[in-house]
């Protein structure tokens, strides 16, 4: 199993730590999302965000990138999961 590691960056004099997602992290997350899509077990975008440890908005951005990469996925409200478009209910 591939472990996803977030890079930490110190921001300003307040030493606030922010999580920055690298290209490698983004690609790993996309692969994980696509595997869950194949299994029809992503859950809602909020559930998927919790599972992946990212925000729901990040999930939506990643799904958008996956679509831009040519994958045809949609969210199915009946089974509450992203699915391949040809398997859409």
Give an overview of the whole structure.
- Helices cover 42% and strands 20% of the residues.
- The chain has one domain: Arc Repressor Mutant, subunit A.
- Mean pLDDT is 82; it is low at 1-18.
- Strand 3 and strand 4 (81-84) form a beta hairpin.
- With 89 residues, it is an alpha+beta fold.
- It has a two-stranded antiparallel ribbon. A two-stranded antiparallel ribbon has the order 3-4.
Sum up the structure in keywords:
3 helices, Arc Repressor Mutant, subunit A, alpha+beta, disordered N terminus, two-stranded antiparallel sheet, globular, 89 residues
Outline:
Strands 1-2 form a two-stranded antiparallel ribbon. A two-stranded antiparallel ribbon has the order 3-4. It is 42% helix and 20% strand.
**Overall body shape:** globular
- Judged by helices, strands and strand pairing, the structural class is alpha+beta
Name of the CATH architecture: Orthogonal Bundle
Count of extended strands: 4
Mean pLDDT: 82
| Helix-strand sequence | EEHHHEE
Strand content: 15-25%
Widest sheet, order of strands: 1-2
